[in-house]
């Protein structure tokens, strides 16, 4: 064995010994920390230990600090069918169907004459999933191949969505609405959410089911979501182009309504899972 080989072996043995020593320090520290943590847990009151078993609350993600996510001041004086009117600033007609009053619910829409459609938002809104008919959704593709699209798109019964409160004065001076009545009339929906060439317009159907409910009806909710949430019905959910338009529409809806953080997303459809859902998770909360 020459000197060069002997020196190389010594270096390798030294490195091996150093790694063993590092592993010893790591595991001894980890074991000590674990024992200390367990002793502290044993001394905690039951209520505090029980509380720590619950997962932490997941808050909305902040918008990235880039120019397109800075505060967005819309210009109401944009020309009909202009470039600005097509991209966000066209939703300049504000429609207060249920003005905010006290701790009750509220509901309003933003209408774009250029796009011929509306973005709507509300507070104290209840969703009754027993009145929404569609396939379960979220399955693996292999298990639902051959299922018709019609089965995966939602059908709403009246009252599928409810908003707490009462209208003191109807929209644009119309008569006062009573609890149990639908929030929007057919004439309102035809004017501000027209059918156009869309064969199944789920947003029209959803808005048509919203009725005004008494505050007591909100006591039996299984879950409350306090943070902004987007309701999304996807068409061609596995198609990249159509999904990109969904991402864009979700972004525009968030900006028009002035959401301070990225909203949560609820898919109101019965589609199976796709890889594109990973991008939904990354873009929104």
TrEMBL record:
InterPro entries: Glycosyltransferase_61 (IPR007657). Keywords: Membrane, Transmembrane, Transmembrane helix. It comes from the Eukaryota. The keyword Membrane applies. The chain crosses the membrane at residues 7-27. GO terms for molecular function: glycosyltransferase activity. This is Uncharacterized protein. It comes from Citrus clementina (Clementine). The lineage of its organism: Eukaryota, Viridiplantae, Streptophyta, Embryophyta, Tracheophyta.
